[in-house]
Structure formats: structure tokens, C-alpha cells
Design a protein that fits this description.
The protein has 140 residues and is mainly alpha-helical. The chain is built from four helices and three strands, in the order ααααβββ. The chain has a three-stranded antiparallel sheet, covered by helices on one side. It is elongated and about 95 Å long.
Length: 140
């Protein structure tokens, strides 16, 4: 009896990375260019300010998330061609999941404006100018 060893060549398997969420990429770029060097908390709050603008119709906002992020002269230091960290992308995915499932927000939905403070924190507010009825919150 003669045994013959048969080998079969296998095609290399392609590995596919999961598709990136365009909105998460846009939020990550916003956070890592505008809030570069700031804490994850500051980046997360900035992402929520952008989401609030999507839902706001009374202050001239209300576009898609990508439109609001790319609106000219809105975000200090923002570079739409900038790079982002995987960890920031992961935060953006979490923020979007919370938003899409109507989960709890860390800020009120009328907080539409932000300013970075010299200590690395971010102050958000519901009015652009210092007018009656303006409220603010600061996050580090």
C-alpha cells in the first residue's frame, strides 16, 4: 500500500477592519484638533456641544453633525484635515451611541458655545454673549 500526501494550497485570508463611522471620525478630529492636549472629559464635552448644535434650530444651527462640525469659524483650532487618536475615536463612538439611543447626556442640550480656559478646562454656556439668562458649566 502506498500513501500519497495531498496538500491543498489555501488562499490568503483577507482581514477586514470594521468600517469607521464617519460621524465618529468627524467628532474625533474635532476633539483632537480643537481640544488637542486636553483631557478626555473636555473632548467628550466638546463633542456634546457639537451634537447640541445639530438639534438646535433657534440659533441658526440644525444641520447634520458633519455640517455643524465643518461650519466655518466655529471651533477654535479645528482642522478638518487633522489626525485623531484611536482613544478619541472610541470616545466619539460612545458619545454617538448615547445620543442615538437617547441615553443620559453629561450637559444640558441648550449648551451651544464653548471656550477653553488657561488651566486646560472647558467652559460651556447656553448664550454666546454675557446676557440675562446665561448659564455656564466648566469641566476639567
Amino acid at each position: 500500500t502506498v500513501y500519497i500526501e495531498v496538500t491543498r494550497e489555501t488562499e490568503p485570508q483577507e482581514t477586514t477592519e470594521p468600517a469607521l463611522d464617519d460621524e465618529a471620525v468627524a467628532l474625533a478630529i474635532l476633539a483632537d484638533t480643537s481640544a488637542a492636549g486636553k483631557s478626555d472629559t473636555v473632548k467628550r464635552i466638546l463633542m456634546w456641544v457639537a451634537i447640541n448644535r445639530v438639534e438646535d434650530r433657534s440659533n441658526g444651527y440644525g444641520g447634520t453633525l458633519i455640517e455643524e462640525i465643518n461650519r466655518p469659524r466655529q471651533w477654535q483650532g479645528y482642522d478638518p484635515e487633522g489626525m485623531y487618536l484611536q482613544s478619541t475615536y472610541d470616545i466619539a463612538v460612545e458619545v454617538l451611541e448615547t445620543w442615538r439611543t437617547n441615553g443620559p447626556r453629561p450637559i444640558y442640550n441648550d449648551m451651544l458655545w464653548s471656550v477653553y480656559n488657561s488651566d486646560g478646562s472647558i467652559t460651556i454656556r447656553n448664550r454666546f454673549r454675557d446676557t440675562k439668562g446665561r448659564s455656564e458649566q466648566t469641566f476639567s
